[in-house]
Amino acid sequence: MSDEKLVGVVLVSHSAEVAASVAELAKGLAGGATAVPVAPAGGTEGGGLGTSAELISAAAAAVDRGAGVALLTDLGSAVLTVKALLAEGDELPDGARLVDAPFVEGAVAAVVTAATGADLDAVEAAATEAYSYRKV
User: Fold this and answer.
1) What is the mean pLDDT of the segment spanning 100-121?
2) In the beta sheet, which residues pair with residue 42?
């Protein structure tokens, strides 16, 4: 299955635990979509709170299957770090894209949609649509 061209998903959080937990939740709610390459990129290399360009780049490379990589972020500096990596041009795989979506709901929507073999535009649209999910 690893030769299947699926969109990869990277979850960038200030916390390694949050990123890993949201990745696990998204895969679980996607019916254990084990084929979807999902990687957490949380915290700093030293295990502290923050973001790490190196961890984000490594996660994006790990999930790249040639169909693009959707990067979802939690808070401000995570967004800035991903934008800086995209601006550099050679730090992330071709087809890497910052997706403006709520972190948890967007991650679930992205992974569920990627599991269907959808392209990056469809994965981004599904994740972004999660902003409209009403809870009350």
Assistant:
1) 96
2) 13
Tokens of 55: 């961890």
Asked if the model's pLDDT at residue 4 lies above 80, the reply is no
Edge-first strand order for the sheet with 96-98 is: 38-42, 8-13, 69-73, 96-98
- The rounded distance, in Å, linking the Cα atoms of 100 and 107 is 11
pTM: 0.94
Closest CA to 70 of 26, 134, 114: 114
Structure tokens at 86: 């995209």
Q: Is the dihedral angle over the CA atoms 64, 69, 72, 77 positive or is it negative?
A: positive
Residue whose tokens read 């699926």: 6
Residue 124 amino acid letter: E
Angle at 81 between CA 58 and CA 25, to 5 degrees: 60
Classify residue 115 by burial, with Cβ atoms within 10 Å: 0-12, 13-18, 19+. buried
Query: Which residue shows structure tokens 């087809």?
Result: 95
* C-alpha torsion sign, points 113, 3, 90, 61: positive
